[in-house]
Amino acid sequence: MAETTTVPQTSQNTARRVKFVITRQDTPETKPYTEEFDLPYRPGMNVISALMEIQRNPVNANGGSTAPVCWESNCLEEVCGACSMVINGKPRQACSALVDQLEQPIRVAPMATFPVVRDLVIDRSRMFNALKKVKAWIPIDGTYDLGPGPRMPEKKRQWAYELSKCMTCGVCLEACPNVNDKTDFIGPAALSQVRLFNAHPTGEMNADDRLDTLMEGSDGIEGCGNSQNCVRACPKGIPLTTSIAELNKQTTKRMFKRWFAQ
Amino acid sequence: MKGYYARKVHSLLGVIPLSLFLIEHAITNYAAFDGGQEGFRKAVHTLNDLPLVFFLELFAIWLPLLFHGVYGLYIAYQAQPNLGHFKTERNWRFILQRVSGVIAFVFIVWHVYSTRFQITLGNTTHDELGGFMHNIVTQPGFFVFFLVGVIATTFHFANGVWAFLVSWGITVGPRAQRISSYACLGLFVIVTALFMLSLFAFRGEEFADTASAITTLKTMIG
Predict the structure, then answer these.
(1) How many CB pairs under 8 A join A and B?
(2) What angle do helix axes B140-167 and A240-260 make, rounded to 10 degrees?
(3) Domains of chain B
(4) Which helix (H) or strand (E) segment is A83 a member of?
(5) Binding-site residues on chain A for chain B (CB distance < 8 A)
(6) Which residue of A has its CA nearest to B2?
(7) What are the pLDDT digits (tens) for B9-21?
């Protein structure tokens, strides 16, 4: 990438510095605290490259040596969902958070809706458990060859593809005022996946099972309070609120069907 | 009853019967502005001449109000506001829906106690209600409480209708939800205007005539 080839000499960039205030936490049980860092500026740097700089030279703004900040990241191109964190108050991907576009000091904190493992590393297990719960897959295995499935109309495929961009990053759950310790709400991401798999011609065969899980217990679709922060926060631009409203329609129909057809 | 069905009942009761009753209430009150003392008395009489009026009140107002109010407090408690980081119109409405709901709950409990329950106690009658209201709303403190309570209630009603349309999967896409927002804004303006006109009408000298008004107020306060 261009930025790696244009790294200036260390002596030249003493003029510009970048200030970071990072919320840290040593273990899942200990209390969080903030630590300030003063880093040399490099053109095109993002929050991840800043964290890498701290890793190379773990010294805080007071000049004291400290443990390097822990974080998670993989793809560095906003498709894997691993580097979600709260940057200047907004949950987003750290890899696409360019320092040039951020107000300083840059405040970085873990998405505390999830259990914090250490520093910026969070445990997103609840999202994957939610996908299992709603059966966010298409069952194609049988004891014999089931043959080819029905074709998907191209028009449907186009909007369904948008839903399939979900990377389970957890930003929508962090943005949602109804995902917290006081509720069991499963969150927008898993709901949108129900819409995706219910739209698929083969997945549709299990549509009712998925809808039923959204209507049982206390973690289902009723947890949505229409703040619509999720659709604003989603880094992939997934129409989450349209998915939720569409599922509201599907579950409502399912409810009446269950009442009157049994 | 928990989860999906409780929330669905909560949502349904908000529109049928509570929103319908609120509109009816606004129209009845408007008679105070439109027809004065006599018009209001007639409107109240028409309403109380409905067959099985006690059961209508019980099943179309009191019980739905109780469930919607109490379950609504629980919904409000569950939210963790984050307006600081998401200053969007929808997030404002999310918060205001919960805040206005709590204000409306307190206001309505007081309002039912100070009017309908006083009739049950025999401190006033349907015929004297106009004068009774005059004595409440001519006191600046109660008048402000009324203004705040009414606006909170009508906002909660209009925004609640918008949310109902989403929650029942009637308005699905962003365009439908935007257009229904404007429609609900119109609903808010109309119903609020009807209540405001009646509140200011109750302050008029015409309603001061009712003879027993002052004594009934004394019994209410004392």
Answers:
(1) 104
(2) 80
(3) 3-221 (1.20.1300.10)
(4) none
(5) 89-90, 175, 177-178, 180, 182-183, 214-222, 224-229, 232-233, 239, 241-242, 244-253, 255
(6) A218
(7) 999 999 999 999 9
